[in-house]
Each structure stands twice: as structure tokens, then as C-alpha cells.
Amino acid sequence: MDKKYLEYNLEELIEDKQFIGWVLKGHNNSKWEEFVANNTQVSTKIKQAKEIILLLRDSYEVLDEESLLEMWKNIDHFDQQHIKK
User: Fold this and answer.
1) Total structural domains in the chain?
2) What DSSP state is assigned to residue 27?
């Protein structure tokens, strides 16, 4: 596993496609388990992120980048309209 995960906070883990793939579908399971075993300092954070993803799995939908960008544009537009008021 990439060492970048050592620096990730809880939100970054929850949003990471590779992490989600592992939690929900077992992708790269042996690599993730080895990573957690070798980096116990992040095991609590990883456990918390896994629990959150599993709690949200029924309503969780992985969006493609274009859909996600469009959603953020809409949120930003909404925020800008309310800031002006």
C-alpha cells in the first residue's frame, strides 16, 4: 500500500476510492491487511473509517469525477447565492 495513507485523515480515507473498494469489495485485501498490520499507528483511524463506510454503504454511491465536480459546482453556486443575501 502507498505510504500516503499514513498521512491521511479520517475524511480523506472515507473519500479514497481504493480504500472504499477494499472496505466494500475486498479489493487488494492482503495488501491492506499487511499495511494495517505494519502500521499500527493508523489502525484506529482505519477502523473508524471502515465503520463509517459500512454504515453508509446502503446509501453510498460512488460518483464519477464529472458528476462529483457538477455536484460541487451546484453547492458552490448555492453558497454564493446565500452569501450575497
Assistant:
1) 1
2) T
